Amino acid sequence: MRLRTSHTSRPAMRRVFTRLWMLALIALIPALGARADEAAPPSYAGFQPTEQLLSLLPHNVSEGLDVHAWAWFSFLHSDQEHGNYTDTVLSLDVSKTFAQRVTVSAEGNYMNADGHWRGEAEQVFISILALEETRTILTLGKFNANFGLEGRDFWSRTHGTTSLLFGAQPQDLIGAMISQPIGETGLKLRGFLSLDFQGHPEINQSPAAGLQLEYKPDSDLHFSWTNWVGPGMVMYGGRPIHHPYPHGGYGSTYDEEDEHYGNATALENWQGPNLFAERGGTLYFTDANVSWRPRNDLTLGAEFLLGTSGTSLGRWGWSGFMLTADFNVTDRLALFARYSYIDDADWLLYGKFEKIWEASAGASYHLTDHLEFRGEYRHDRGTESGSMDSVSVHVTVGF
Question: Count of CB atoms within 10 A of residue 177's CB?
Fold first, then answer.
């Protein structure tokens, strides 16, 4: 069934979107005309608050200490009923390196998912240079998975909203990983054990295991292929699983009449997988992606993923792909575009039996080295939820 829309007609909404983007382009005309190599050094270039703060600490404390802080604010407006969403993340990342061999890191977030406030320990881990000769690194704890093209946090990504693939793959791992470069070939192997696909400390099951192959022959080409085998996900007939946060935490609530969650569950999925599933069978998951920079100002990306659980009742799963493009107009202005598709025919990802397509485009502008603005237009279409148009504005402050 289709979601009920507001009384605002789609032509009227499209006129609003068109005017917003015209205003944005008019505002950016001066920046479009400026060449990166002609820009004068800004007066704020020497403003480095974290370095200045660390300089006040005793040397034995500041040595090897790295501190980063971010704040992300987002407003999204869609043409759906109750279609306005406001999100906030405040983040602090602290790491300390000892003797250039051991690093202890922690990152904590305080976030607002459209009125749902909660705290989160995003990362708490230790990395050890186990063998200096072979550059073998062992990591233990909770850490970002980094399987796909999109970064875990907004400031690590280059677009506005996340793609449909973001909530279909692990974003955090709880367990262990060993990273091994293969000489000077550009190849790197990462073997890992993880307690849960959703990055949740679920210890009443056997862990998942996997291997990531990374190939980076130069700075312009990067390829990654990840394979994962572990406890599976089914729609019914399994055991309950724990959820990282309540369903509806993206501002979407369960529609009793249409018997599904709103498609804001997919649109607002910037926190990671939160499956509508039960535990059963064995899951095989794979993700392959490539990022290529044919010229200094253009980056192209492609990604494919598949998750399938085999059980005595048959197979359950999902699949999808994504295409991306990023173009740097100047050193501060960039344009981006994306197309993504997910087949969630078994309900597991977004609580709806459907296939979804998404296309988006926008621009980002670094006002300073510490302040960035992004604007994005996005169109979603689902086989059950119908079409949805949205515009979003994002502000990031980072030190």
Answer: 21
Instruction: List Cα–Cα distances, 340 to 128, 320, 346, 355, 395, in angstroms.
Output: 37, 7, 18, 11, 24
Tell me the per-residue pLDDT of 187-224, one tens digit each, with 9 for 90 and over: 999 999 999 999 888 787 889 999 999 999 999 999 99
Residue 2: exposure state from Cβ atoms within 10 A (0-12, 13-18, ≥19):
exposed
Contact 197, 173 (CB under 8 A): no
**How much is the pTM?**
0.84
**What one-character DSSP code corresponds to residue 11?**
H
Joined together, the tokens standing for residue 193 give 């054990």
| pLDDT(52) > 80 | no
Q: Which amino acid is at 224?
A: S
Phi-psi region of 99 (alpha: psi -120 to 50; beta: other; left: phi over 0): left
Give me 285's structure tokens: 């998951």
CA distance linking residue 224 with residue 188, whole number of Å:
9
Using alpha carbons only, what angle is made at residue 324 by residues 321 and 329, rounded to the nearest 5 degrees?
175
- Write the single-letter amino acid at 162: T
Give me the count of residues in the chain. Answer: 399
Task: Find all residues with CB under 8 Å of 229, minimum gap 6, and list them.
Answer: 208, 209, 210, 282, 283, 284, 285
Domains of the chain: 10-37+122-390 (2.40.160.10)
Q: How far is CA 184 from CA 27, 37, 48, 134, in A?
A: 47, 34, 35, 11
Q: How far apart are CA 367 and CA 99, in angstroms?
A: 38
